[in-house]
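Input structure tokens:
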């Protein structure tokens, strides 16, 4: 039996669950992930049989707490975060876990397997599963800003990258209970749409570009459109989770799908788009100069 799995390993999903497995892959891809380990499904099975938590788990929790307190416990069920069934929001994430309440917090996550909303979700998806739970124990980073990045926008234009950003910890952003700024960017880094929802903009342009770069890098590693949870603490970007987007997208053949007048209709490459944009810019500037305007005007 293997009761704990470190962040430097990449164990089977059957042992560490979807979230734990993805976090271990993020570490192997050199993403900046807060220190963690996974309480495996073997621990869950042992608890289900004996109603006790193995001593190895207690030891690892106390070691993690000695590095930073509090920590966070995140559910990592077998089969979650899949395209067919994401189980999004079905299981608990518990913040501010300390030496005094870590065991009760772990049991609370185990108990969430049997909630009415999980039973209703299984019935809706017509799934009959023997649910098994792993749990991620992770250092809690108290971020100033956080959010979600979709490497393919769920709405048109689906070639764009979508970033939702809010102030504070990420749970409110993910659950939709916090006001978020919404930004759509091309995969080349140009802003298509910027919709503020906060009095002060959450992200700077440099942070948006950093998120875009990191998101596309992780998408290339995972080979599929990805939903990425992130946060900034003291101007440092942390990645908290990655999962496939539970939505079917058309193949991405072009970066630019706009009609650049009757001269260049339909889809064009980024190089053609930039060339045509600069050509038309010069045409309009020269026309204005012929009518008496200065170049600065």
């Amino acid at each position: 039996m293997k009761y704990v799995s470190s962040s430097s390993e990449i164990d089977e999903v059957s042992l560490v669950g979807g979230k734990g497995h993805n976090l271990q892959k993020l570490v192997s891809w050199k993403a900046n992930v807060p220190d963690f380990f996974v309480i495996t499904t073997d621990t869950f099975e042992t608890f289900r049989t004996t109603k006790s938590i193995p001593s190895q788990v207690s030891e690892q929790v106390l070691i993690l707490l000695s590095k930073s307190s509090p920590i966070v416990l995140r559910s990592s069920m077998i089969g979650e975060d899949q395209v067919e069934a994401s189980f999004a929001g079905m299981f608990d994430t518990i913040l501010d876990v300390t030496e005094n309440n870590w065991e009760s917090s772990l049991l609370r996550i185990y108990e969430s397997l049997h909630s009415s909303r999980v039973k209703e979700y299984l019935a809706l998806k017509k799934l009959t599963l023997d649910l098994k739970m792993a749990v991620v124990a992770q250092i809690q980073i108290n971020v100033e800003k956080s959010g979600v990045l979709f490497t393919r926008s769920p709405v048109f234009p689906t070639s764009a990258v979508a970033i939702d950003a809010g102030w504070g910890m990420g749970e409110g952003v993910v659950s939709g209970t916090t006001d978020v700024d919404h930004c759509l960017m091309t995969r080349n880094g140009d802003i298509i749409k910027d919709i503020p929802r906060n009095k002060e903009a959450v992200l700077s342009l440099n942070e948006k570009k950093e998120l875009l770069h990191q998101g596309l890098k992780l998408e290339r590693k995972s080979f599929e459109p990805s939903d990425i949870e992130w946060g900034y603490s003291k101007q440092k970007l942390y990645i908290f989770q990655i999962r496939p987007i539970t939505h079917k997208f058309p193949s991405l053949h072009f970066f630019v799908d706009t009609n650049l007048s009757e001269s260049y209709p339909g889809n064009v490459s980024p190089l053609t788009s930039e060339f045509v944009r600069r050509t038309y810019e010069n045409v309009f500037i020269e026309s204005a100069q012929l009518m008496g305007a200065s170049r600065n005007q």
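DSSP finds eight helices and eleven strands in the chain. The mean pLDDT is 87.
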